[in-house]
Specification:
This protein is an alpha+beta fold. Helix content is 25%, strand content 19%. The strands form 2 sheets. A 5-stranded antiparallel beta sheet has the order 1-2-3-4-5, with helices on one face. The longest helix is centred in the C-terminal third of the chain and has 15 residues.
Length: 145
């Protein structure tokens, strides 16, 4: 899976793109500094990705539920959330999520991914009873509306 699935990753600068849906299902990606191309963020794409009450801060590499930090998000868990939250309505095959999060070819086993998804759910559950990651049986995962 190519990491170019995130908005703005083809170019180094982020142009202030905002993608949104309707009502409380709104998903928003925006530059943290509000400075558009002049922001010195060291990352391509938006500084923060938001979905419902989740905020993924790509600069600090931290996940928040509302204003509460989620403890212990690993590198792979962060990458999984980054992909899913950047495209909240898209269903991703387990194989594609694996290739994105581990940045290596899929080798035929999805149990590792399933365990990471379970761990993400448990960490979020410590701060809220809301469900954020939906299992799409026979395919993979997506963000829950």
């Amino acid at each position: 899976m190519d990491r170019d699935l995130l908005p703005g990753t083809v170019t180094v600068a982020f142009n202030g793109c905002v993608a949104s849906g309707a009502g409380e299902n709104q998903t928003k990606a925006e530059n943290d500094t509000g400075q558009g191309d002049t922001a010195n963020t060291y990352i391509a794409g938006p500084a923060k990705i938001e979905h419902r009450q989740l905020v993924l801060d790509r600069i600090s590499r931290q996940l928040y539920v509302a204003d509460d930090a989620v403890d212990g998000i690993t590198k792979q868990e962060f990458a999984i959330l980054e992909l899913l939250m950047a495209h909240p309505r898209q269903v991703f095959a387990k194989e594609d999520i694996f290739e994105y999060a581990w940045d290596e070819p899929y080798i035929g086993e999805t149990k590792t991914l399933d365990v990471h998804i379970s761990n993400i759910r448990k960490k979020i559950k410590k701060l809220t009873d809301d469900e954020y990651i939906e299992t799409v049986w026979g395919i993979g995962y997506k963000m829950k509306e």
